[in-house]
Amino acid sequence: MAKKAKKKAAVKSAAARPAAKKTAAKRTSAKSGKSGKFVYLFGKKTDGNGTMKPLLGGKGANLAEMCRIGLPVPPGFTITTEVCTYYYDHKRSYPSPLQGQMKAGVAAIEKQTGKKFGDLKNPLLVSVRSGARDSMPGMMDTILNLGLNDQTVEALAKKTNNPRFAWDCYRRFVQMYGDVVLGVQKRPDEDHEPFETVIETLKHERYHKDFEDTKLTVEDLKELVVRFKALVKDRVGKNFPASPWDQLMGAVGAVFGSWMNDRAIVYRRKYNIPTEWGTAVNVQAMVYGNTGDQSGSGVAFTRNPANGNKEFYGEFLINAQGEDVVAGVRTPEPVADLKKHLPKAYQELERIRQTLERHFKDVQDFEFTIEDGVVYMLQTRNGKRTAMAALKFSMDMCKEKLIDWKTAVMRNPADQLEQLLAPVFDAGEVAKATAIATGLPAGPGAASGRIYLNADRAVTAADKGEKVLLVRVETSPEDLRGMIAAEGILTARGGVSSHAALVARQMGKVCVCGAAAVEVNYHARTVTVDGQKFNEGDWMSIDGTAGKVFAGQVKTAPSEIVAGLLDGDEGAKKTEKFKSFQQLMKWCDQATRMSVRTNADTPEQTQNAIAFGAVGIGLCRTEHMFFEGNRIDAMREMILAETLEARKAALAKLLPYQREDFAGIFRALKGYPATIRFLDPPLHEFLPHTPELQQDLAKKLGVTAQQIHLRVEQLHEFNPMLGFRGCRLGIGYPEISEMQARAVFEAAALVQKEGIKVKPEIMIPLVGFKRELDLQIEVVHKAAREVQAEQKVKLNYLVGTMIEIPRGALTADEIAQSAEFFSFGTNDLTQTGLGMSRDDSGSFLPAYTELEIVKNNPFATIDQTGVGQLVDIAVTKGRQTRPDIKLGICGEHGGDPSSIHFFEKVGLDYVSCSPYRVPVARLAAAQARLSSK
Ligand code: ADP
Ligand code: MG
Ligand code: MG
């Protein structure tokens, strides 16, 4: 699921642009801060709605939407994201009308609840919640029970006749506010949160043991508040704020401040969320899940987000506030069990579950609190899901007529699709292995790796190329880097809404969480399961589909989709996963305009790609045809030859091999076209570079080692990427191109006679001048004429070029006079366009991403503004000269969903990518088309 959010963000940002324009006028006013609407109410009167996520954030917009459809939402108001932008543009200050609008907002809440902020009889308490446009789980902090002080707590106790509850709220509030707003947090030399240490100390002083917080007495809680305040005073040198308004303004500032905390920055970078979006702040009347055993709090999904099953999924805690459920302090119960505890409330939740899906027409992830048997809704959003669940949701909801097939296509994140093709554990191997522990299946798939118990060490090991399994008691946002680096995540504690499960769902990581039998010893760096001890670096395997943990390395097997498509496995073809996948691909074909080809150099790769739905080869690199077996000797002979005759003689030895290779590929293509690129790399890549190997070759060819050494020196280049390569080779040695052309056409004639259609498209690489192409075309046509005459056949072929250096793109109108097609070689076009060597970029590119000089790795996702312009220019100029010119892309970017959206926009005819990326590209191409209409 890794890149899902990223994709979503990209799509959304495009979709949101016109809306942003509309609010341009407002933005100016927000800039000056003199006027404008900065506060939007929700409740009895609701100003916003679900479409206003850019302005109100995801949480605020959906709170408004839920109010509009009559769901029980505690009243409140949203401070807009524009205020966040203003805040950072104006040295962390607010637009002047904000305070007044907030006062009116609080007054509106007071009116609806009958309570008053800071009142000594019936005090109103609020929560202060962050909420960016896209949900950022765990990144921002929420403050509950705000408005309590030494006086209002007594009022609350009296009013509810429940002092324990009142003091529990106060204790929580001082703790949360102290942590989030005042920054009283664990210091680097501390093992525990300071507030938790205070609680533990008190428990041991008074009771000499550890126990659940729910068992603390009123006296205990009162004492805790006193000690918490002392801790705050000690750490920050100031008294804990008593005035509710000071508390509120401090909390609002903290939410805006948290937009720039490290966790938030790391998350935004990973998911490509622009810093400018900002966060909104929601201020909302509290409802209480901690008043006793008729109350509680939970999180739920309208369907199972791990495997997609249509079942109510989630968990809750009785007598708890919302934070407890995700914090992993107590282990929550599955939501189905609520039926036993609070049947009425369960029924109401079932009703809400239906309402949500019918209204939002997508699976919802929602948060609720039950106060004395009454259900309140606190949040809803489209649920993050694994690729597997996304596929099943889309199929089921289409059958249920909640969505149409086009929406179903859009609901499957393209860059998540590869998860479905990822290996699963081999059934036979699993039968042999014994599970040493079980936990919750939180992220499907199979993962084996060496275990590491902290994020830093996991990252270091992964950087060294190790397969890593991150094992933790539970994870927190600090572990994010480690989770990204790991193959899979195993936690001992935490339920389906724990941080680990959440992140796994989103990043598509294999995850088993809450495997209670797993004992983690951070200090000793060991994991003990059922008496068996594992050290860091030992192998373990986890099955995130079944929730099982295995010792050692368990073998994997291909996914049902791969087994069905590539191996023709009949059993696999009967699985729901396989059938759904095929249905999805069928819809993609209905929707798409661009076709998808593959980059393949062998018949086997070609067959696989066709099984995955490719309709031709977009790039057949011929280099390897010179490398394999003893061909390399003939190739070297050719390079070392001193006369044309000797070179031709060596090339003649290569011809039959190449002919055979091409014939195999043409047969595998079954009539689909193949773009064949002529020799591209510089010749020295084919020669041996160590004295020993040069000695060996000398013996073989009957020349002296000195001769070989000399030739290697001659061919040495300071900058091979820009050296004697590409069409420059064919121009320097036309006999090479002649041999390659001959091999192609002879193979074509051969296969055509077998009754198979053949459509070769010969591609001359690295062209910057029309004349370069012309010289090569002449060679190709001559070979074609000769072969056609010799074989008495008529061959259908095209000659074109790769556009991969800026001059080629800029003079595309001239080049198109000769070229019958262009294929964009975006790898080299990026290298030459940016003047950046891909192979050397590792030393500076990470810093460039960190500093936001580049948003993405330009070698993975096309740099639209720069390199994209070159593509755009070449497309326009190429079509000016030759309206029906065939246009494709064969760089690495051909398999990257966000680049594919760009290629749809500029109007290419096809994209080409590696065989296993073909399904991803088909989905992305279909989605690009659907979202461009
Ligand atoms: P996050 O974005 O991390 O999910 P939230 O703002 O949703 O943070 O708050 C976390 C939890 O706090 C919620 O799940 C909810 O249970 C609880 N909460 C927030 N606001 C209120 C409220 N007004 N009344 C009761 N509980 C609340
Ligand atoms: Mg929430
Ligand atoms: Mg190239």
- Structural class comes to alpha/beta
Low-pLDDT ranges: 1-29
Radius of gyration: 32 Å
How far is the first residue's CA from the last residue's CA? 26 Å
Q: Could you give a short account of the major beta sheet? A: 8 strands, mixed
Question: Helicity level, as a percent range?
Answer: 40-55%
Oligomer: single chain
Q: Could you give the order of strands across the largest sheet?
A: 14-24-23-16-17-18-19-15
What does this structure look like?
- The protein is an alpha/beta fold and 933 residues long.
- 47% of the residues lie in helices and 16% in strands.
- It has 39 helices and 33 strands.
- It has an 8-stranded mixed β-sheet with strand order 14-24-23-16-17-18-19-15.
- It is elongated.
- The structure holds adenosine-5'-diphosphate (ADP) and magnesium ion (2 copies).
- One magnesium ion binds next to loops.
Topology (SSEs and partners):
Blueprint: H1 4-22, H2 24-32, E1 39-42, H3 53-68, E2 76-79, H4 81-89, H5 98-113, E3 116-117, E4 123-124, E5 126-132, E6 143-146, H6 152-160, H7 163-180, H8 194-207, H9 218-236, H10 244-258, H11 262-271, E7 279-285, E8 296-301, E9 313-318, H12 322-327, E10 333-334, H13 338-341, H14 343-360, E11 364-371, E12 374-382, H15 387-399, H16 405-410, H17 418-421, E13 424-425, H18 427-432, E14 435-438, E15 440-443, E16 446-452, H19 455-463, E17 468-472, H20 480-485, E18 488-491, H21 499-507, E19 510-513, E20 518-521, E21 526-529, E22 532-535, E23 539-543, E24 548-551, E25 556-557, H22 560-566, H23 570-573, H24 576-591, E26 595-599, H25 603-611, E27 617-621, H26 631-640, H27 644-669, E28 673-677, H28 691-701, H29 705-715, H30 727-732, H31 734-753, E29 759-764, H32 770-791, E30 798-803, H33 806-810, H34 812-815, E31 821-824, H35 826-834, H36 845-850, H37 867-881, E32 886-889, H38 897-906, E33 910-913, H39 918-932
Bound molecules: adenosine-5'-diphosphate and magnesium ion (MG) (2 copies).
